[in-house]
Amino acid sequence: MDNKEKKEVIEVDKNKLDRVLDEMDALKADNKELRDRVDATVDEGRKQRYEDKNKKPTLKKVKLTVYKGKIVKSWSDMPLNKVEKVNGKWITEQSVKYTLEDDTVVDMLYEESVYLPRIDASIEATKEISDLDPDGNKIVLLDLVTEDGKKLTIDHRFVN
User: Fold this and answer.
1) pLDDT tens, 5-29?
2) pLDDT tens profile 52-82
3) What is the mean pLDDT of the chain?
4) How far apart are alpha carbons 5 and 18 in whole angstroms?
5) What contacts 124, CB < 8 A, 6 or more positions away?
6) Which residues make Cβ contacts (< 8 Å) with residue 110, sequence separation at least 6?
7) By percentage, how much of the chain surpasses pLDDT 70?
8) Nearest-angstrom CA–CA distance, 92 and 110
9) What are phi and psi of 115, to 5 degrees?
10) Per-residue CA distances from 121 to 106, 147, 151 (Å)
11) What is the mean predicted confidence (pLDDT) over 141-157?
């Protein structure tokens, strides 16, 4: 208990307390009965509309890629994407450009990038931007919170 909180003790007649508790139980039972009656007679379409309008947001989990302790904010399509057959063998040379949370850019081979670790994060909010991405899709930014409390905003295309 905090020093700021004061503990107060009151005296109540046991019969009065029992009566108050019994009334609370009766109200709970009446409330449940009323709720059951409403649920049995309600129009399902209206009920669904009400639930959709008044639903509480659910926190969704996403995975974020991490490179040397820094979260990857975005990546580019393969700037180097060389695949060719030489003497019956397929030779690949592919690289990916990652932009980290501190805006540093890292080039790495695609084969190495596949094995980067991922961490969990929760979506706190989403924002639609009026601009379109290069493919003509709406840009949606996600406000994320990692399990260690770090907050950041990332385009929805860069979470997995």
Assistant:
1) 778 888 889 999 899 999 999 998 8
2) 787 766 668 888 888 888 888 888 777 777 7
3) 81
4) 28
5) 59, 143, 144, 145, 151
6) 78, 92, 94, 95, 96
7) 90
8) 10
9) -95, 10
10) 22, 6, 9
11) 81
109's tokens: 């081979």
Q: What's the CA gap between 140 and 62, in Å, rounded?
A: 14
Amino acid at 66: V
* Contact status, residue 119 vs residue 35, Cβ threshold 8 Å: no
- Angle in degrees, CA 21, 27, 42, rounded to 5: 160
Residue 72 contacts residue 66 (beta carbons within 8 Å): yes
Strands 80-86 and 118-132: unpaired
Q: Alpha-carbon distance 129 to 123, whole Å?
A: 17
Place of tokens 């409390």: 149
Whether 128 has a pLDDT exceeding 80, the answer reads no
